[in-house]
Structure formats: structure tokens, C-alpha cells
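Memo to structure team: turn this sequence into C-alpha cells by end of day. - J.P.
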Amino acid sequence: MNNLRKEIKSLRDELAKTVANDLSDKIFNNLLTLDIFDYQNFFVYKSFKNEVSTKKLIDFLISKNKTVAFPVTNSLDMLAGKPNSIDEVKSAFGIDEPKDYLVLDNIDVCFVPLVVADEHKNRLGFGKGYYDRFLSKHPCLKIGLAYEFQVVNQLSPNPWDVPLDIIVTESRIIR
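Reply from structure team:
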């Protein structure tokens, strides 16, 4: 698994920024076809490096007056922080997190980052387990955003891995 994670991460990191932006736009447009925007509370990762960009998604949700929370991590855990201001701090992983926030426990839809996913909606993240622990405590609709090359035939999930409900790529939606 670690070799697959490393290989796909390397492919993603090597994407030209213009290509990553173009693919992210296509993924966002596919996302707009989903019947999920009647929900109110969204938990969205902030894209990092060459992950599928969530910027347009975040702006769209805010424009629709949705409640948007972001990951806030400590050494073992992650919570959903609804920002009280625009002030941010860098996490231990170098990702922007809200500095001042309210904890949002009631989440309707969670957008989950991933390195690799499979046709059965299993995912490999960065290997720290933050999202699996979080999702096991917060029942919600789980949506993975991925470039098509990040989707493989089959992974071998661990018993604690929480599968996704939907994966959206630039060319399809896996339900």
C-alpha cells in the first residue's frame, strides 16, 4: 500500500499547475450535478499542494449561505472548525486551519481528501488515520474528490477504514 500511495502521490505532485486547475474545474462541475446542496453543514478539506482544489467549492458553499467547517488537527485527533474570523494558522502538516473557530459536530456532508481510491469507494489517505477516526464518530455523506488516475481497481482496506459514499473525478461519478 505504501508503494502505491507513494507512486500516486508522485504522479499528483508532478501535475502541471494548469493541468491540476483544469481537472479540478471539471471535478467541481461534476460535483455540481450531485443532489447534495440542500444540506446545510459541510466539512471541507483545504486543498494542499496538488490535491483536487476545493477553493471553488468553498466559495460556492459560502455564496449559498451554507455552514462550512474545516479540519483542525492536534497530535491525535481532528475536529470540524467553523471559522469565527479569517485568521488562520498552519497545522503541523503545513495546511491552513482556522485560528478562532466553533466546533461543528453536526455534519451533513464531508469532502474527504485522498491519495488513492478504488472502484468500491475505499480510500487511502496519508496514513495517519485522522479522517477514519473522525468519520467513524460523525455519520454524514462522505465524498472523495480525485483525479481519474488516483482511482484503481481494488484496494485492500483495513477493518478501521471508513469507505466513501461517492467519488467524483473529472470524468465520472462513482456511487
